[in-house]
Amino acid sequence: MVALSNFVLSGRMGESLGASNQYGGVYLPFVIVDYIGRMWMMRIRHDGSNRPQFQIDRGAGCETVSLISFDGFRLTFRYGRSGAVSTCYLCPPSDEMYDLAPPRAYSGKYLALVQNKYSRALIIDKVKIKRNLERQMLDAGSVYDQGRIGSEIAYLCAVRYLGLQSVVLEEPSKNGKDLYTMNKQSVIQTRMIKAARRDHFELSVQTELLDLIRKLGQDFRYNGEMIRGYGALSFVNRRNDIKTIVVEVTRDTRLSRS
User: Fold this and answer.
1) Which among 89, 107, 135 is the end of a domain?
2) Closest CA to 84 of 1, 24, 25
3) What would the DSSP string read from start to end of 188-240?
4) What value, to the nearest 5°, has the Cα angle with vertex 181 and ends 241 and 77?
5) Structural domain boundaries enclosing 232
6) Which of 48, 55, 85, 148 has the highest count of CB atoms within 10 angstroms of its CB?
7) Where among 66, 89, 112 does a domain terminate?
8) What is the pTM of this model?
C-alpha cells in the first residue's frame, strides 16, 4: 500500500458539497463503480485548516483512509483506527491471476463428515498462482489475504466451471455470504486452509467442509430465493500443492436429507 499523497484515484463526483456532522467541515462526495456495477461511496473532507481527508463510507458512517493500493484488479483501502481493510474489485479475478485445472467428480476421504449432505462434489487437482503478489499473500499474508485468495479461486471456478453468471465477491471478513449471484439464486461459501497442523490435516479439511455446508444451511433459511449453494474449500496439501474441493447443496437435496 502507498500513502494517499502518492495515489491518483478517479471517480464520479457528486453535484454539491455536504456538511460533515461526524468530523466537522465540508466534504465532496464521489462514487467508484466496481466490476459488477455496485457503487462505493467515498468523499474528500476538509475542515478549512488541516490537511484534507479521504474517507470511505462503511454503512454506519465514514472512516478515514490511511493507505491505498491498486494491483490491476483490487482497489484496497486501509481505514479507521484499527487499520481495517476493504477491497473493491475494479476488474474481476481472471486467468492472469490463477490457472485452474478442470474439475472432476470427487468421492474421496475429505468428504467423510459430509456424507448425504450434498448433491455432488468436485475437486480441482491443481490451482496455479501466476503472479508474485498472490504467492506472497498466501505465503506471508494475513488471514484476510488468505481468505481473499480462497474467494478469488472460488469466483473463477464459479464462472468457468459451474456456469454461474453475475457473481458478486464480498469481503471475506464479513459475516454472511462470501459470493453470490445477482439474482440471489446461488450462494458460495469459501475457505482457504494453509496453516493446518500436519498431523491433523485430513481432519481439518473434513471439518471445514462440514462447516461450509452448515453455513449454506443458514443461507437457505434466510434467503428464500436461493436455489443452490456451493462450499468451496481451497487448501495447500502436504506436497505444497493447492487444491479446491467444491460441494453443491440444492434446496431439494437439503430438504430430502434433513
Assistant:
1) 89
2) 1
3) EEEEEE-S--GGGHHHHHHHHHHHHHHHHHHHHHH-TT--EEEEEEEEE-TTS
4) 70
5) 98-257
6) 148
7) 89
8) 0.89
